[in-house]
Amino acid sequence: MRLEQLTEGDSHSQVVVHDLTRTQLVMYAGASGDFNPLHTDEVYATQVAGYDKVIVHGQLTMGLTAKMVAGWIDEADLSAFGVRFKNQVWPGDTLTVSATVTSVTKGPYGPEAELALSTTNQDGVEVVSGYARLREAWTAEAR
What we know:
The protein is an alpha+beta fold. The protein is built from four helices and five strands; from the N terminus they run βααααββββ. The longest helix is centred in the middle third of the chain and has 15 residues.
């Protein structure tokens, strides 16, 4: 969908990951450089930190949330993005991101929109809430 097609109240939901794997956690750790043992070491996470198992990186969950926005709206720049981590994400979780358009305005280079975001697990528990602001993609001609 294009930014200029959005109207206040429009919404979209998408599953961004099915059955999040431990391999994906290790791959994310390698890409991000975040090797905190809470995310990669089962013994540390359970016996030292007291969790049931390793926990998913918050930034991975945040990135999956942003992935849905970027895939839904074509030819738009993300001008602001923020989240609040509400609950833990675990290996095996399936995450669904829902976005609702809360405003559409005219900016200096075209339409701008603000979205309310919510990421939930397979049990319907919200793990992330947040927002995204989008504006018309800047091109050389627009500058």
